[in-house]
Amino acid sequence: MAFGSIAEQGRGYAVRTAGTAAEASADTGKGQARGLTVLLTTAMAFSMMQLFLLGALGPRLVDRLGVSETVLGLTTTVGFGTAAVLSPVGGRIVDRIGPRRALVTLLALSAVALGLIGAAPGSGLLLVAVALGGLPQALANPATNKAILASVPASRRGTVTGTKQSGVQLGAFVAGLPLAVAASAIGWRGAVWVAAGAALLAALWAWRALPADASPPPKGAVSGPTSSSPGGPVAWLAAFSLFLGAGIASVNTYLALFGSRHLGMGPTVAGALVAVLGVAGIAGRVGWSRAATPGRAPWLPGLLAGGAVGAAVLLAAAVRVDPLVWVAAVAVGVFAVSGNAVSMVLVMQRSAPGRAGQDSALVAAGFFAGFAVGPPLFGLLAERGRYGEGWVLVAGEFAVAGVVALAWAVRDRRTRADGPR
């Protein structure tokens, strides 16, 4: 009896120990997943930080650096034009070198670009710095998507993707509120240099936190069938992203200037408009990405583009009814900004094995091309004070994005219905 009792106690101890070990392992796994999500979110924030800083600090740049409204739009064109051209190459590079090296490079280049923006004496060096900032943008989506596919279970990829895509809007919030406030205390150059130092620290964090990359595949190795053919989802998503990006970039670049010049806001309050857009974008990207299940996801880009049209109409109405600008900023974040996150979820759902980096880069190239084209067109109207017409132009760009998205969703449903049974 005593021996049996001891044996039962031993078995109970073993079960409890095993359970404790399993729980500890699960907690460790969850902790690692959270750490990865935070790191990827940070990388996305820094990849486009320059855009939001130029937008939030636009009134100061125009007044103190002598940058015109048209040149302010041109900075966006140079940066995102570079990103659009380099994105297809960047996707192939990420597929070869792996996410760790790509993320470290992304963050280091972001630090250098921000540092140069802070040191720019005029438009010339500012444009050079912005062009350099196009490189991390080209790497951002391929690198972060590859990291998710390598480390995150399929059931959680939508949530993690939405969270890391919200990092872009986190960057908008940081640029529009903390850094805009810091600019009042330490000057706009000091605020940009603070951002540059933070990006460098993030690069060191990525190097220490991420596992070593696997050896690259043999050169010329076949990576599987492509999903970027003219009839495939990637080509349609790239076209959708082109028009979506044109509208979003115009809002990002000129929203604070609109508040300052047309609505009579102070620079800090006008910068807060960008922060509000950023917070709404974070919530929208996380929420809509969670909703992007394989059956529902194809229809979401068209729905979000429709909401974005309404947001642009509100901006046009704010020309006469000032308070509407705050509602419009929230709506742009919830609808327009969220469209890019959903498109990235669709890329990961539909990409062939080994092509996630390249397909992500092709869709991102369309998005960046839109960012390059939109602001200069808007800037021509902004210089003449015709903001109402500019916001109507943005509404038109969002409307075209919606038509493209819905056309692909209908085509996709028919293709799947006619497929093998």
From TrEMBL:
Residues 36-414 form the Major facilitator superfamily (MFS) profile domain. GO terms for cellular component: plasma membrane. It is a multi-pass membrane protein. One of its GO terms (molecular function) is transmembrane transporter activity. InterPro entries: MFS, MFS_dom, MFS_Efflux_Transporters, MFS_trans_sf. Keywords: Cell membrane, Membrane, Transmembrane, Transmembrane helix. The chain crosses the membrane at residues 36-58, 70-90, 102-132, 186-207, 234-257, 269-288, 300-319, 325-348, 360-378, 390-410. This is Major facilitator superfamily (MFS) profile domain-containing protein. It comes from Streptomyces gardneri.
